[in-house]
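Page 47, continued from p. 46.
Same chain as before, 358 aa.
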Amino acid sequence: MTDAAHSRIDTLTSWRGIFAICIVLFHCKVVEFTEPTKFGVTFFFVVSGFLLGMKHRAEEMRGKRYFKFIGSRALRLYTYHWAALAIFIALAVGLAHGNGANWDALVPNLFFAQIFSANKDVIFSFNGHMWFLGDLLLCYAIYPLLGAALGKFTLRVQLLFVGLVMALLWVVMGCFVPHEMLTCCYVFPPVRIFEFMVGMVLSQCYFAVKEKSTGWSDTKVSTFWFVAIIVIVVLFALVRMGDGTKVDHFNEFVLWEIPVCALVILSAFTAGRTDMMSRVITSRPLMWLGKLSLEIYILQAIAGQIYAYLVAPFFGHFGLIIYHLYPVGIFFILLPLSWFTRRYFTVPFSAWIARRFA
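Result:
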């Protein structure tokens, strides 16, 4: 077990909140957030592997300890998923009379089996973005196997392997996968397992060179942050200006993996710093959003139903047409709902799980 203090990196918490908001806006059909969303999804998988590698040694995840490890995470994710799915279905039946629901996909969705489907109507049915939790749970389940496999090789060989797989994905996604299948590949577990594994390798890189960041001045840290953010924003803009070329074809995958790694490792190296940029990134509003990121992600479709079928029609009775304000209006429901859920369900339930699996 590594030092628990290293597993809490406030800047990563803030970035979680920022990318959670980007994902919601993308699901609200705000196309300007397409690339930040793809970046954010990759970020979440890399960060999951990174933080798990910081907290738990894979070789120690054996026997009873492994079952406690995976049992606590499976119980937590399935409970969140089933609770949100039940509310979603209740709203879909009660407000929309079940219109648009693919009931044949209900059973696969119950058990996260939709992540293995090549049918978009199955993958994204009901609370459609919950495929993320299914892929994440699978990553957790095979974490000891990934750790054992990586442990057989030096860090240099691991980095070489990561680079080769990135290059392979670059070729396969850009040249051989039909464009209409890219979305299914976006959900397909092996792609996300690889990104999770990249995070594990990144955690080893951090431990190998972390001492080199101790002498950085506040000016240097702020400069690093400023340059990193500017480069990422410029990349977003360049890809957004694409015209369907090869770069635009496979940007859902490899294009964002290296920038994500840079953002994660910089966050780790600058954890606890008090320079201007670090203070901005870890400001109270962003930290607050980051702590709500899981609830924001899980509840976004539910908040969307409430806005579309309750709030907007209510105002419509008074002549106020606000359907077009959906990307903004949803947050007046989503943020309070996420805060309430975290305070009165997520935190107490997580504490109960921690005691149960201690």
